[in-house]
Amino acid sequence: MVCRGVVRRAPRARCNLPFIQPSTVELLRSNARIEPAALHLRCAFHTRKGTVLSKIKPKTAAKKPQASIGIIGGSGLYTMKGLFESKEVRIKTPFGDPSEAIVTGVVEGKRVAFLARHGRGHRILPTEINYRANIYALKLLGCDRIVSVSAVGSLREELAPGEFLVADQFVDRTKHRVSTFFGGGLVAHVTFDKPTCPQLSSVPADSCVHCGVKVHRKGTYICMEGPQFSTLAEAHMHRFLGFDVIGMTNVTEAKLAREAELCYSSIAMITDYDCWHPGHESVTGAQIVATLNQNAENAQHVLREAVKAMPDEHDCKCAGALAHALITDPKLVPAATKKRLAPIIGKYMS
Question: What CATH number did the domain enclosing 130 receive?
Answer without folding.
Answer: 3.40.50.1580
